[in-house]
Amino acid sequence: MTTAIRGKETVSARALMEQLNTDASKLNIWVRTEMNAPSQRAWFADPGGATGAGEMASGRVSANQLKTLPAFWRWKDYGPFLERVSSIASRADVSPIEFADRQSILLTNPGLGGRLQITSTQRCAISVYNPGDVAPAHIHSANASRTILSNKGGYTNVEGERCEAKRGDLILTPNGTWHDHGNDSDTPVIWIDMLDWPLMEYLDIAWVDLEYKGAGTQSNAKIQRTDFTDGYSTRLYGAGGLKPTFVSHQRGWGHNPTPLIHYKGDDVREALHALRGEAGDPYEGIKLQFVNPVTGTPVYATNDYYAQMLRPGEQTNFKRETCNTFVVVMEGTGKTEVGGQTFTWEKNDVLVMPNFLWRRHTNTGKDDAVLYTVSDGALMRNIGQYRAQGKDSGGKIVQLVS
User: What is the reported pLDDT for 314?
Assistant: First the structure.
């Protein structure tokens, strides 16, 4: 380990400092032996190849880093599991809701080592509720939502507002709001639960409270009393550009929670259809953002929700962002290219588009395609880390500002 340079004896610093780490590790110390390199290559170092950037770097920093991968789940594959869960629950000695809190499947991203999450910040569960099922009132640190896949049936009660669920509805349960779920129809109902739970876990602030102190019990489960009938928040805030001044906009005790809890699928589809004659965005088609009607900001400080429409034959230009995006197909058929992979989709299929990767959508059907998306773009913007690039029709990379 020693050499002579100009008459001086020197040592191999690299080797000896690595030896120091043998003892240092026992004290949870790392003697720096390499550049403190990021866990992946610089995004903009990639000139625009098919897969985009995001390749893992070498070194200690990236050794245990997990990377979200493009992923795709077909309704024809995951739907049967929900049917099996429903069947077991209908014959169960003890309802799965009693010992598992929910009757659901959770999607796992193949790049995240089996963790119960689909991206670095998002968890997705797809739940089924049989007739008569009730999930007790609870409150948690995560922001959550229900995207309804069934044509009708089921409800969520949020801070006393009963939201009757129909296909295409988006029902929000902001951090700090009491909510309960159930199905009082005669058929099972299915919806997608999206939460920023992995982010809460990383920050070590994940918690759930089931000790609801309110009136009313049903089927031995604590539920909220209905103080506001279905459509209450829609009646208050559903007229764009008009904010009621005679009510408090605070729901629960979170920070600036959106007071519009229930977005009706019929209203979303009507709004998209009214705009189908517009040119739209070359990277997104016709796209609408779900916003807090009081502040005009995304509904959550972490997750951002959108509905977008692609007209028959429409193909978006390639785009990449610093946010992860989850997609559920509400209507139509098409394909999405992301990170060099192509996923062909239809109704109720879901997919994940990781950050940094080039992606584009194509409507291959004869009817409009409607996609609902949930991204952590709101979080990226709030911490000053949102960036986006696109490729114009000639393939040139352009910086996108939004």
Answer: 98
